[in-house]
Amino acid sequence: MNLGIADDTAATNYLDQVAILGALDVQKQWNYTQGIRWDNYRDNGKWTLVASRNMLNNRAFKHLDNNEDAPLIRDYLSQEIENKFRVERKLFGNTGWEATMGAGYEYVKYNNRTSEQRYNPAAGALDSVAFASDLKAHKYAVFGTVNRKVLDERLTLSAGFRADGSTLAGGLRNPLRQFSPRFSASYAFAPGWTLNANTGRYFQLPAYTILGYVEDGERMNVGEDARYLSNTQAVAGIRWEGGKRNIVASLEGFWKGYQNAPVSVRQGVPLANLGADFGVVGNEAVVYNGAGRSYGAEVLLQQRFYQGFYGLLAYTFVSSEYAVEGGDYVPSSWDNRHILSVTGGKKFEGGWEIGSRLLFSGGLPYTPVDFESLAVETWNFYGRPLLDYSLLNTERNGAFHQLDIRIDKKWFFERWSLDVFIEVQNATGAAVPQPTFIDVVRNPLNGQPVPSATQPGYYDARELDPSTGAVLPALGLIVEL
């Protein structure tokens, strides 16, 4: 982070740089994963044992006015540690069936230290939040799947289940509450034609950030009402492949329904609607009464390698929405609606290859700014505007497109090969559409906010366009032995 920009009043877009610097926290993160796997093959299948450990360390903090000698106004540190063990048995039958069954166990640790000021929209003021959390818990699961081909192997059937539980919260202990059945079928009803369908119910554990939140010395989100997020889904489609040009075409529709989604008590919105740029999500009191749904269809056309050419066109229409219990559904923060990807290329003699990809994505929804957060006390702590969640995702960004181009040259040797490539991402320099960034009027000599002359206790708003686009060239090589 270029903290020196705050002292260089002659810098290009000086006030904009100061605004961005004031809005950003310092974030430091590291992680590791290590593990071991053992397979023991038998005549009728195999045994698999897997043991692993992973850790994530996440730090976010900010000093007042970005001055390291000033007090911290936000200080967050969390650690997630998981020690995992899984045993799995795979069996092959003499009549065309196969089965997999197993169990998993995890010993997990989570630490959280938080100290910050948070805006309370109901009171229009800042609340102090400070707590430390240190929890240890167990996670456990059993699973099984059976597959069978029948009708001269034209029909493939698969059925399975999974059940999960955890001591992280009272409502998460019973694995029967998270019993997850699933079923799929694939039927080749004519040469080159296949009907596919699958349905099932799936569960996801709430984030450790949610389960570790402490208020008045007690973990708030771990009572008997705590729930895994559940997803009931159904997918069906048709696929054709063949012809002289080696073409694949498919059409697929899907529907997903979500229950028990965590909802922020303070903001009154599902955490899934806070978006990817919100910072630390879930470090607050929640209730598990949110609901969501998504549905759509995908069309895929693929030209497999034919006379040196290949290509892939995929179009997806998707609608994604979330709601609080008893409330109306609103678009989720991931509701692109339209996604189009076109990829193609040509291989030439001598190891040359050229390819490109064009991506088009519909605009994402966003929540407008709460101009009450321009109050002097609130702005001085946050250094950025806060959002008006009474108007959750009522606005939408413009669409986005990106063109990537790549040229490869390959050399093949007796025992190895070399691939040298030049790649240009976002070749047209297209900008990613984003909401107008709201800053405050600043003194051009030192970048400090200037209190409003017409609205005492507030700053006046100033608009910035954060949308930028950059061409990203790259040179690389791949060695295969």
Verbal overview:
- With 481 residues, the protein is mainly beta.
- The chain has a single domain, classed as Beta Barrel (Maltoporin, Chain A).
- It is built from three helices and 26 strands.
- The strands form five sheets. It has an 18-stranded antiparallel beta sheet that branches. Strands 9-10 form a two-stranded antiparallel sheet. Strands 18-21 form a two-stranded antiparallel sheet.
- A hairpin with a 2-residue loop joins strand 1 (26-42) and strand 2.
- The chain is globular and about 80 Å long.
- The two termini are 40 Å apart.
Write a concise synopsis of the structure shown.
With 481 residues, the chain is mainly β. The chain is built from 3 helices and 26 strands.
Any descriptors?
single chain; 481 residues; mainly beta; Maltoporin, Chain A; 18-stranded antiparallel β-sheet; two-stranded antiparallel sheet; 3 helices; globular
